[in-house]
Amino acid sequence: MDKMSVAARAAVFAGLLGRCEITEKGHSPLQLEEGISQLCEKLTHLRDEGHSLYLIGNGGSAGVASHATTDFFNVAKIRAATLHESSLMTCMANDFGYENAYSRMIQQMVKPGDIVIAISSSGKSMNIRNAVSVGIDAGAYVVTLSGFSHDNPLRFLGDLNIWLDSRDYGLVEIGHQFILHNLSDRFCAEIES
Fold first, then answer.
1. pTM for the predicted model, two decimal places
2. 8: helix, coil or strand?
3. CA 11 remoteness from chain centre
4. What is the domain extent for residue 46?
């Protein structure tokens, strides 16, 4: 990546968010605001019905998931959790293979009416893709956040799919964080009004 000034990088980021693509199951496209509003409604219903939100990711995406979990729990008052607690994750990875670690946890924890948010910058992480399939089978509403290639394997697996058109890890991760933070901020605005 070329050295860019902060202002130039901010302009690239703004353009990236403007090109964000959201699709529903079956590849039906949604406008950005329509997709975010739909997800906000799903999260409101989840909270009102007492269901749970689970967020998963690897590496930097796990960090994004952790931060978002805190915001959803504290600000939106949603029962939210990440599934990468180290002893549980290493146990599942050791016993069932890393590619099945999240899916084994989701199989045991997720109930119909829950939401799973699966984050992978590249969309290629097998453990995330396996977890999405198991989440759907368990009756969860599954949201994917990915970037990189327009045809990455995660991009169309969820009920709602958010894709950022960039191969820059930093921009994709910050974009995912921005989108998730925007969702929790909407709950904050609702609570304050």
1. 0.95
2. helix
3. 24
4. 6-192
